[in-house]
Write a structure and sequence with these properties.
heterodimer; A: alpha/beta; Rossmann fold; 3 domains; 6-stranded mixed β-sheet; two-stranded antiparallel sheet; 29 helices; 8 strands; 63% helix; B: alpha+beta
Chain lengths: 688, 71
Amino acid sequence: MRSPSNEALELAGGALDGKEIVSADRAVILVGNPNVGKSVLFGALTGKYVTVSNYPGTTVEVTHGSATIEGRPWRVMDTPGTNNLLPMSEDEQVTRDILLSESGYLCIQVCDAKNLRRGLLLTAQLAEAEVPFTLALNMADEATSRGFAIDLEKLAEALGVDVVSTVAVERKGLAALQAKLGGARPSRFTPRYDAAIEQAVATVVPMLPRAGIGPRALALMALVGDDSLRTWLAGRLPAGELERLDRIRRELAVRYPESLRYVVARQRLASVDRLHDAVVTRTGASATSGWTRRIGHASTHPVWGIPILVAVLGLAYLFVGVLGAGTAVDFLGHTVFDGYVVPWTDRLVRALTPSGPVQEFLVGPAGAATIDRNGLLVGRYGVVSMGLSYGLAIVLPIVATFFVSFSVLEDSGYLPRLAVMVNKLFRRMGLNGKAVLPMVLGLGCDTMATMTARIMETRKERVIVTLLLALGVPCSAQIAVILAMTAGLPLAASLWFSFTILLVLFLVGWLAAKVLPGRGSDFMLELPPLRIPQAGNIAVKTVARIEWYLREAMPLFVLGTLLLWGLDRLGWLRVLERAAKPVVTGLLGLPAEAAAAFILGFLRRDYAAAGLFQRYQPFMEAGTMTRTMEIEVTVALVTVTLFIPCIANFFMIVKERGWKTGAGMAAFILPFSIGVGAALNVLMHWFY
Amino acid sequence: MATTSGQEHCPLCGHAFDAAAQGCRPSCPLAKGCSVVCCPGCGYTFPQERAGLAGRLRRMLDRVERRRTGT
């Protein structure tokens, strides 16, 4: 038996700093999905507790150690978590390459017992790869508490390998696992594909070189067009055979409307589903029995999930738009700030400081109206009269009510279901399934979501996802202000706004799907039980988010005020407004002062929207919005939503993708957003 | 206000992880030292609830709950 060589470690690209390599004849490799307790099991077997952070994009870490199992020394290797032996990320490629390049090892597949379906998808691929393994159903206690009963004997019989139930953190089942390890053997479970794929596999198998994994798995990988495997094959097959392989693959691919990767995965999943349903039953002990389970199931249903999604978003819209943007802003903005805070501070500052730049920076120019219903920003750029008023009196009540809604979504367990529904919608838009995760995360914070674009496989995909995030995915604070603004518009204008943003996302996504090599991937997310949200949890989550918002946004609001103050003092604000006038008034049909809102939009897009909100809110409240004003609000909202990303997101784009890409995106987004706004202005004047 | 060590549960994927060294602050270009943590499982970001005012509120609610249940 040959133990894993350093070749695998070189393939993995992982350094083994500080890890002692012990010589032993027998070797075991731990494989499994991410976050199933592999590293804990590794620690329990080797005596070392190893923490592995599989953070997307970080250096892939491969750890190994030694263990005495059944009185004999073993080398143990821990691999990065993987959902697929057809790699979609660097981590998954490392695990696949280790299995591909090694021979003579045994495997332990660590599986999350409460998410057996996901684990069995990997089991099926290990079976196809003819890897000798023992299956450890970890977190068995949590599976039981959630009402899952797994028939271990039936599963072992169907797979033809030993199956052991474990709770690695409590070292339960480890002795049984160690005892069964020596008997690890290839599984007899063989997913069957349709006749065309089976025929292609049969043709390709004799052409392939020997490898650490079986020829059937290798043939399937080659047929679906795995680029990383092609490099490996290119060094081992004559050019003629490689061309023949490509021809077989092309002939097979034309039979299906979807990618071969998707077709193979779907047919494999069907086999796994049959096995899963045969061995798993739900008991009465389920925490999600009764109506919550039924609603939970319906919430991800292709048909029933959509009205539930619309109802949830509608309730959030009413809560934020009516309570947040209406009642709370009216009280804080008009009663507290306009009535007391701003005038009092104005008098206090003017009494204590000499007239000049400092006084103007704090409370604006002397003589300027404290409340200017008709103007936009001009004369109101004092830290108190503008920065704090916008931040605390306008945006804070809106985002606070939105944070309450978001906390309810989180605590109820609906958020992951929302991600699943969005995944379904995005797939229909032709977007790569894996792109959904950064998009969903972007609804929280685009800056951090830009970082998670690292999970995309190619640079091209990462750039497209970053572009879509910067272009059309509003962050939580921005969504809040958008909800508040659209709540004051007639339904038709709100639909114009929503339709335009979705159309832009669809078109850019569709174009991206056309430009990108057509490879999708499974979007896997464990769905927690749906439950009634707890008031205490919602309060804590909301307070945590408001603290975060105040820390992150308020300094930028003050910075924005400083920027406007500086521009005005130097006379550049009017120059900018004059320069932007043909675009702002001519193309977009907005007041000339709106140029200042777009300058602020670069600092924070919700800051820009707050300026627009302040201008139009009195008319919305009084019900005196004219048709022209409704068009102005819709056009301004669309332009601000699509406008260049905020400063934090821009820096993150530069950090992740480089200066050239960052500047290129800004250069594309700026005219594009204005172009869309201008087109919308014309269309709304014709058809609205 | 930086993140503090302790067990966190991701609201998106349910993954339990130690918040130590999982803060977004080394990567965020602006908000260094904020209390937002990133789930190592799915990348979801959320403000840590054991820090700041939210942490105090959480501890107070926990105390009330313990008194109520007598534990």
